[in-house]
Amino acid sequence: MNSLPAAGLTAREYLRVSAKGERSIPEQRQDNGRAANREGFALGTPYQDQGSASRYATKGRDGYDRLMGELTSGQFDAEVLMLWESSRGSRRVGEWVTLIELCEDRGVRIYVTTHSRLYDPGNPRDRRSLLEDAVDSEYESAKISGRTLRGLNANARDGKPHGICPFGFKRDYVTLKGKLVPVRQYAHPDEAPLILELFTRTRAGHSFRAIARDWAAKGITGRRGKPISPETMRDLALNVAYIGLRSTKGTTVTASWERLVSDELFYEVQAILADPSRFSGNSGAPRHEFTGAIVCDVCSGSITVSYKRGTAAYVCKGKGCVRVDKAGVDGILTRVVVAHLNRPDAYEDSSDAGEGSQVAAIRNQLAQGRADLRDMEEATSETLAEARILARSVERLEGKIKELEDQVRELSRPTELSTLFRPGGNVTTRWLRTPVSAQRAIAALLFTPTVLGQVRLTRSPAPGKRGLIERVEFRRV
User: Fold this and answer.
1) Phi/psi at 119 (nearest 5 deg)?
2) Same domain for 279 and 292?
3) Are residues 163 and 61 part of one domain?
4) What is the pTM of this model?
5) Are both 53 and 135 inside the same structural domain?
6) Using CA atoms, how far apart are residues 456 and 380, in angstroms rounded to an integer?
7) Domain stops at, among 119, 146, 173
8) What is the DSSP secondary structure assignment for residue 22, as one 8-state letter?
9) CA-CA distances (angstroms) from residue 380 to 3, 159, 383, 399?
10) What is the pLDDT of residues 428-462, one digit of tens each?
11) Percent of the residues in the chain that have a pLDDT greater than 70, as a whole number
């Protein structure tokens, strides 16, 4: 029982709840209210927080900060600080010591409802009891954090789902200790086809902006009911979860869920996204299908589009060596492209025949490397020397896996014309309906010295002396 007189004192509560299953703030208030009536306290305005007091917590606690500020400034207008239990104050020993010292300096007593006891921080025995509670709370917090971290690391090694469920997947959950824990991740019947479409269209040269515009017109939205932005689409296209991998600590492990796209499609898209030629000096979607495939015949510099004289013209970007009517050149190049796409031999594979088997061999090495890495991470060492050797082996293997992943990305560049423009009829109509980003990719593939020839714009000897078609050369090797 208390030996301190308490009747007639004013008390202010600090209320906090950090996890499901703990006593809620309203329940803490009820318990505190009954104790206040029993002790004769008059309750003032409470401080409260919804968050952890653990040393591992990352979120701020506004109520606690306000309490400490008012104790420091002398604005705490009560004789008693009331806590439902001592860990409600803080599970950090340093914070708890500061709180006790401030209460001692201001003559504020601490009442702990679960103890049914009023403590005087200036009393050595009471002070020791309060500090022992802080040490016990921090120790328990550390144990919980350690168990949580071990569980997360084990889940990562096993490739189990974690965090927010990626777009394209669904999850099954079970409730453990008041928390939802994912136990299974699988293809979402409506979203998974959209992920496949995103990768397929990106490989075919469609820009994220064009895909986003199409999806918005069809009413396709993200999980918050808003249209999916081009920036979000890029993040989706970079996510290894769609090939059945989980990224953890800079490495990837085989995941427990099924893939949504093939390795070939995924790594072809990665190569496209990593290509620096996708980015130009100005922002926004590309507007001209042939600028990237044309060069100046005089200086071999790049070509840009100018509107200075009222009509669009192709102009040498560096020195202004040539200027040619854009519409006329586009007409010539479009006829050449359409004629080529109508040829039965246009889609013959000219890529390295051995490249596919090389990629397959590297992927087999990747699978073995990831399996070995998982075994190493689960291994235990009996001595410090063994632990150091194992750590170095893990580091070397992680580096090797990174090298293999880079090789797969490099060798998986899309080279077949059929991935950009499917064989079939109505070539002219389909070409005109193809997004500019895809047209640019096709033009870059065809207008090379080994296929249709590099497109070069030449000078006219004198104004009006040379026809437009004569100023467009296709240089082959």
Assistant:
1) -105, 145
2) no
3) no
4) 0.44
5) yes
6) 65
7) 146
8) S
9) 55, 20, 9, 21
10) 988 988 888 888 888 888 898 888 999 999 988 66
11) 78
pLDDT of residue 362 exceeding 50, the answer is: yes
Distance CA 104, CA 106 (A): 5
Residues 6+ apart with CB under 8 A from 53: 16, 18, 61, 64, 87, 88, 89, 90, 91, 92, 95
Is residue 320 left, alpha or beta, with left meaning phi > 0 and alpha meaning psi from -120 to 50?
left
Instruction: Give CA 224 to chain center in angstroms.
Output: 17
Asked whether residue 248 falls in the same domain as residue 116, the answer is: no
Taking only the tens place, the pLDDT of each residue in 404-429 is: 877 776 665 545 677 778 888 888 98
- Give me the residue label for tokens 């992943």: 405
Residue 244 has φ and ψ, to the nearest 5°, of 75, 35
Tell me the one-letter amino acid at 117.
Answer: R
Residue 370 lies in a domain: yes
Q: Is 153 contained in some domain?
A: no
Nearest to 107 by CA among 122, 118, 86: 122
Last residue of a domain, one of 94, 117, 146: 146
Q: Rounded distance, CA 319 to CA 17, Å?
A: 70
> What is the CA 197 to chain-centroid distance, rounded?
20
29 and 113 co-located in one domain? yes
Instruction: Give the residue numbers spanning the domain of 455.
Output: 286-350+420-477
Backbone angles phi, psi at 254, to 5 degrees: -65, 130
C-beta contacts of 314-320 below 8 A and 24+ residues apart: 314/457, 316/457
Specify if 190 maps to a domain.
Answer: yes
* Structural domains in the chain (count): 4
Residue 214 lies in a domain: yes
